[in-house]
Amino acid sequence: MTSRLARAAVSMLVLASAAGEASATVTEYTDQTVFSAAISGATIFSFDGLTPPGTVSFGGVALGDLSFTGSDFNIPAVVGSGSPFHGGSAFFTSLSPAPGIFEAEVLCTLAGSKAIGFIYGDFADEGALPFTVTLSTGDSFELSTSPNPGSDIGFVGFVSDTAITSVTFSDDGVGFDLLQVVKTRAAGVPEPAPLGLMATGLLALALLSRRRAVKVEIG
Length: 219
Fold this sequence. Notes:
Layout: H1 2-22, E1 26-29, H2 32-38, E2 43-46, E3 56-58, E4 61-63, E5 66-70, E6 75-79, E7 91-95, E8 104-121, E9 130-135, E10 140-144, E11 154-171, E12 175-184, H3 194-218
Antiparallel strand pairs: 1-11, 2-12, 3-6, 4-5, 5-8, 6-7, 7-12, 8-11, 8-12, 9-10, 9-11
């Protein structure tokens, strides 16, 4: 009886695990106000102060546990505040030396977050350029840059019930820009599944029954 109960509990744990994987979801937000209302405990990162105003620093950068770089064939750089782009805000950009051959890509890696959002733009291309956002979860989203390059900006955010450890922005133009990042670890944490709780309880009961049986035999 005890071994049957243990086997049943293990089977239910496997089913609960599979159900948990199947229910993993990522919600996309393109409205920053709605995204902000869906999360809590957010930290905002900008590229201010990474390079003196009016200058450009080449290479990848880190902000807290966030790292930013381009792809192998891109030129990553931080543009300091005071430029004629994006209202003078500092921003990180990744420029492709060969548009159409090498995509312009920005790669953001992080320790892991259940919710992350980005203010983005593009100063080097024409407006309304399609781009793709790909998450470490395997999810991919299609958007377009704002109509007025170097002026208008856009927002995209994601809330996931599994940790996001990388986000890649990719378009087929000259460059892609990130102006700000909003990140939290507190959002999107799933509640324990009832099936998982039941399986855990059955397994504990089986182990307890086996322990009692051993005590009786010894006595």
